Amino acid sequence: MSISSPQTGGSRRPSSRPATGAKPASKSATPTKAGGGKGGGRPPVTPVKVSQGRNWGPIALFTVVGLLAVGIIGFGVYQVFKSNETWKDQAGAIPGIVNYNKTDPELVKSGVHKYGHIDYKQSPPVAGPHNPNWQRCQGDVYPAQIANEHAVHAMEHGAVWITYRPDLPQADIDKLASKVKGNDYLFMSPYPGLDKAISLQAWGYQLKVDKASDGRIDDFIRALRQNATQEPGAACSAATPNYITSTGTTPHDLGSPAPSAPAK
Amino acid sequence: MISPFATPRRRAFLLGALVAVLALVIGYLGGLLTPRLSTPGDNSPEAGFARDMSTHHAQAVELAMITWQRSTDGEILQLAYDIATVQENQIGIMQTWLKDWHLLPTGRQPKMAWMPNGTKELLPDGRMPGMATDAEISQLRSASGTPLDILFCQLMLRHHLGGIHMASTIASISHDAEVTDLATTMKNNQQGEVSNLRRKLTELGAQPLGS
Fold first, then answer.
1. pLDDT band at residue A222, thresholds of 50, 70 and 90?
2. How many interchain CB pairs under 8 A, A with B?
3. Is the pLDDT of residue B144 over 50?
4. Residue B9: which pLDDT band, with cuts at 50, 70 and 90?
5. Contacting residues of A for B61, CB less than 8 Å apart
6. Which residue, A120, A128, B65, B154, is most buried by CB atoms nearer than 10 A?
7. Cα dist. B176→A81, A154, B46 in Å?
8. pLDDT in the model for residue A32
């Protein structure tokens, strides 16, 4: 329909002979037959009178259909563009986030296991070597400080670690705990000496905020939980025997060949 | 004047070609976009199920792994191994769905919001149906011998009943064949295991836990 309407309208011009094929000729032949029966020859074809001005009907129709099509396609493209935004894009868009993949790529690459105490450049740490045993991160809310060496291993598995200064108001602690409880790949613990009230860590990322009501906390968790990991699909549950559910800042060297043996 | 558009015939041909090309482009774009727009969205029941069931399954893996390390009962060992490996694999399948749908593992809605009854499905302390408490997991971790086997059967039986409730719900409300297929096999498989767990509990001289 859309193809034929402009042809029947704007493009046809009166001419002595119809330039297009047999169709118009045979059409116009019918009334001629009825009108005059004289002679065997074909009577001259009467040109169809068509308005010389633009035929606005089809033009308007085309415009509307065209705009609709552009709108639908545009919406689709927008949706796809939006859904193409990766978790990295979403994390990068959080104001104040520090991405150590950019500032210290070597640190984020390294995930070697070491027993004993490990020094970390960041406080709290965000990546790097860690204890062979990971901190259980099945929505655990630890009431006391935990060992960095286990926490870093949990983050390697894709967990987001929420830390807070012990003087954070109880209401804020409860609000943070409510985000953590019942959700695997999340764990939380107090962190004495923290330079901000709250600090969130995922493997290679960190965000420090002042209040538990800060909307960026949910953005951080949403973008990075299970995504920022060196080992996608690794468990947060307490596997055997490499699990830690206790607190204390000294790493628990479960499985170490001997207390003073060098790290494997 | 001689131009390529001189005759109506040429003009009609050019217009036809233009329309054909446009139709092809629109058809191509439509075909490209439709699958992306028709996959489950961020707040869909399918996405909610994939996220919540991943968390639900992760606890089953933990219960099974704790038991697999420490039980001495051959049937319990086999059952625990089966549950841990099956459910870990299914977590991978559900996480892959989310990736395929261009969604994140973490949603914006509370747990069970995708169920017709919504968050009313949650237990008073916020657990999903069938989930064990931290205290029960600690208890399992410190148990051994027959008490370990009994507690595993009790916790896993209750866990399965909660899982079956979620799986049969999504199987009945979703139209995504991938989702309903997996949910249906989950339901059937766990129902079979529920019978095994009940029988085992009777053999061990114990009762299922109250819900």
1. very high
2. 100
3. yes
4. confident
5. 235, 237
6. A128
7. 23, 34, 8
8. 44
Q: Which of the two residues, B150 and B4, has the higher pLDDT score?
A: B150
The verdict on A138 touching B (C-beta cutoff 8 Å) is: yes
Considering only the beta carbons, identify the residue of B66, B106, B126 that sits closest to A182: B126
Q: How far apart are CA A140 and CA A113, in angstroms?
A: 23
For the cut 80, the answer to whether the pLDDT of residue B185 exceeds it is yes
The nearest CA of chain B is from the CA of A24 a distance in Å of: 13
End-to-end CA distance of chain B, in Å?
A: 90
Instruction: Pick the closest to residue B113 from B102, B104, B103, B122 (CA basis).
Output: B122
Whether residue A236 lies within 8 A of chain B, CB to CB, comes out as yes
Crossing angle between the packed helical segments B134-142 and B145-173, to the nearest 10 degrees? 140
- List strands edge to edge, sheet with A186-190: A98-99, A205-209, A198-202, A160-164, A186-190, A138-141
Q: Does A52 touch chain B (CB under 8 A)?
A: no
What is the pTM for the complete model shown?
A: 0.79
B50 residue type, one letter? A
Amino acid A102: pLDDT: 94
Residues on chain A touching B11 (C-beta within 8 angstroms): 11
Per-residue pLDDT reduced to its tens digit, B45-82: 999 999 999 999 999 999 999 999 999 999 999 999 99
**Which residues of chain B make contact with A87, given a CB cutoff of 8 A?**
104
Q: Residue B211 has what DSSP assignment?
A: -
- Give how far A113 is from chain B: nearest CA, Å: 23
Using the predicted structure, report yes or no on whether residue A264 has a pLDDT greater than 60. no
Distance from CA of B117 to the nearest CA of A (A): 19
CB contact under 8 A, A236 and B33: no
One-letter-per-residue 3-state SS of chain A: CCCHHHHHHHHCCCCCCCCCCHHHHHHHHHHHHHHCCCCCCCCCCCCCCCCCCCCHHHHHHHHHHHHHHHHHHHHHHHHHHHHCCCHHHHHHCCCCCEEHHHHCHHHHHCCCECCCCCCCCCCCCCCCCECCCEECCEEEECCCCECHHHHHHHHHCCCEEEEECCCCCHHHHHHHHHHHCCCCCEEEEECCCCCCCEEEEECCEEEEECCCCCCHHHHHHHHHCCCCCCCCCCCCCCCCCCEECCCECCCCCCCCCCCCCCCC
Distances, alpha carbon A232 to alpha carbons A3, A203, B59, B60, B111, in Å = 54, 12, 17, 19, 22
